[in-house]
Give the backbone structure.
Amino acid sequence: QVQLVESGGGLVQAGGSLRLSCAASGGTISRYVMGWFRQAPGQEREFVAAASWSGGRTLYADSVKGRFTISRDNAKNTVYLQMNSLKPEDTGVYYCAADDSAVVLGTTSRYDYWGQGTQVTVSS
């Protein structure tokens, strides 16, 4: 069973950038589709981005296309989310997740393993 730990969150002004990391242990991420999700206070968890086993195929929520980039380094067992041009509506807890399948999807229920999350706050 893979364990996931996110880091890199913090407080940033609108227009700024952050890079989130998700370090895995207890297993290799190379067999998983890896995704990022976020949850704002009082709202449901929503899909942000996902990457296939090799990282060759990626999927993004419309709200982050062109601003966020997901990448993965299977040798380091780590997934990243580069977030640029941040907006106040990007505020939330960001979660890393692993999906034990071959299809890159943004469906929350498909993901088998989750990290504890890292807080991202974007001030206006």
Notes: The two ends are 40 Å apart (CA to CA).
